[in-house]
Write a structure and sequence with these properties.
The protein is mainly beta. The chain is 12% helix and 44% strand. The strands form six sheets. Strands 1, 6, 9, 17, 18, 19 and 20 form a seven-stranded mixed β-sheet that branches. Strands 30-29-28-27-26-25-31 form a seven-stranded antiparallel β-sheet, with no helix packed on it. It starts with a strand and ends with a strand.
């Protein structure tokens, strides 16, 4: 029995559309508004239900708003959520750090959208670990709960959770039982996750019949089998599915957390498709599998990194301060995002319309730093990122036979090394690393250990003031 909810929640970066929509393009192009009012607390014991926390990094952990009507209730309960279920089923302390409603330029943001870049916020509730975490590349979705929820539930261990599509099939006895129940022939089945040493979650997909395609969400408990049908779209016996680009295969959900509650199993799931994400919970109630869909989020991919107005103003200020007499002549009217250190946060390359004068900047959490300045003589190039560290080279003529070279290393969107050297007719005259003078041997060792060059695709966009 499926119950559609309007819960503001959050999702991981892969996505899935509303399971009741028959047209796949409609499902994946936008999230579909649920039809019932969401209850944020358990009907029986009045404890706040789990929420879904979307994270791109330890600095970007959010419960993303889905509906304006739920904003007040969610924000009023935000501080109650103090525990996060990690992927290994440990509980980590978290804290609520504030509400986000507008982007850095003060503009209202769309609800129900999940972004792929940490520099693109969504409206919702921000959280952080109570103690520092050292996770670097951390992208997905987790469950957060209140202390009162944990007092009345037991967190269950998730075992043998396989990548989507890689699970072993259900036992033939389970499949035959479901074939008989639904009057259909199974095409495939998949056991996706073992829960608490007792339950097994997975899916069964039937062959098309009478121009209909049906799959099942399935939970087994010993010799008991519970299921919920999900109808897809049908165009022909060769063209059918549940989501755009699913290849006619119904994928299992990711089990984000599982609990044993007062009335039995409470399973938090995340069902993904290319451009949307559905999150919710499954319960076994009165001998039936109940699926509650909280929200269907629109997952945005391949987004352009933004250049916020306040950051642009700071970049131009730093550029002017680097050489006020010369740089005042150049307006820096175009920009290009480039991820120098491969941390999924873009650095920004600004240029004047002459395509010769410009500067590069890091920008993380609203803090802007000048990497280096290019001129008609000092040209920019890049080196490969290695072990989280990327390099910018700015080099060119310093007059006559002299060549001046700067190398700036960027890690975690911060400049961590500054190397410079002056050569005359190929002979080293001086070199420094972070302000310390190097010998010719030390300079040769440093430059000899640098990674190979890279040539990123160059595309500058005009800045809209």
């Amino acid at each position: 029995m499926k119950k559609m909810l309007l819960l503001v929640a959050l999702a991981a970066l892969t996505a899935c559309g509303n399971k009741t929509t028959k047209n796949a393009e409609e499902r994946d192009s936008a999230a579909t508004a649920p039809t019932e009012k969401t209850e944020l607390v358990s009907e029986k014991d009045q404890t706040p239900k789990p929420l879904f926390l979307y994270h791109l990094s330890t600095d970007y952990m959010m419960v993303v708003y889905w509906d304006e009507e739920l904003r007040d209730e969610l924000s009023s309960r935000a501080a109650e959520y103090t525990k996060m279920v990690m992927e290994d089923d440990r509980l980590k302390d978290i804290k609520y750090t504030g509400e986000v409603l507008k982007n850095p330029d003060g503009e209202k943001m769309f609800m129900g959208e999940l972004h792929s870049r940490p520099t693109l916020p969504s409206p919702g509730l921000r959280y952080a670990f109570a103690s520092p975490e050292n996770k670097k590349d951390w992208w997905g979705m987790s469950i957060i709960v209140t202390d009162s929820y944990l007092q009345t539930r037991k967190l269950l261990r998730r075992e043998s959770q396989t990548p989507v599509g890689d699970g072993k099939p259900f036992p033939r006895s389970v499949v035959k039982q479901l074939e008989k129940q639904y009057g259909l022939t199974a095409q495939r089945s998949e056991m996706a996750c073992k829960v608490g040493g007792r339950y097994t979650y997975g899916v069964v997909q039937f062959k098309p019949k009478n121009k209909k395609v049906v799959a099942l969400e399935v939970i087994t408990d010993g010799d008991k089998t519970y299921s919920e049908p999900v109808e897809g779209y049908y165009e022909s016996d060769q063209e059918y599915g549940w989501n755009v680009d699913d290849g006619g295969e119904y994928f299992s959900s990711h089990v984000c957390a599982a609990f044993e509650g007062p009335d039995g199993l409470e399973l938090c799931f995340n069902h993904g498709a290319p451009e949307s994400q559905t999150v919710g919970m499954m319960f076994i109630r009165d001998g039936k599998l109940v699926v509650e869909e909280y929200a269907a989020y629109h997952s945005l991919i391949d987004e352009q990194a933004p250049l916020w107005k306040k950051d642009l103003a700071e970049m131009r200020k730093l550029y002017l301060a680097d050489d006020p007499h010369v740089n005042k002549e150049y307006a820096l009217t175009k920009y290009m995002p480039i991820d120098i250190d491969d941390d999924r946060i873009d650095e920004i390359w600004l240029r004047d319309k002459d395509n010769a004068h410009g500067a590069l900047f890091t920008c993380k959490n609203g803090k802007v730093e000048l990497i280096g300045v290019e001129t008609e003589k000092l040209k920019v190039s890049f080196l490969q990122a290695r072990r989280g560290k990327g390099y910018v080279r700015i080099a060119g003529s310093a007059g006559g036979p002299s060549i001046y070279t700067q190398l700036m290393a960027v890690r975690n969107s911060q400049v961590v090394e500054r190397f410079n050297m002056l050569e005359v007719e190929g002979e080293l005259q001086e070199a420094q690393l972070n302000g310390k003078t190097l010998s010719a041997a030390e300079a040769a060792k440093y430059t000899g250990a640098l990674p190979d060059s890279r040539e990123p695709y160059s595309y500058f966009m005009d800045i809209s003031e």
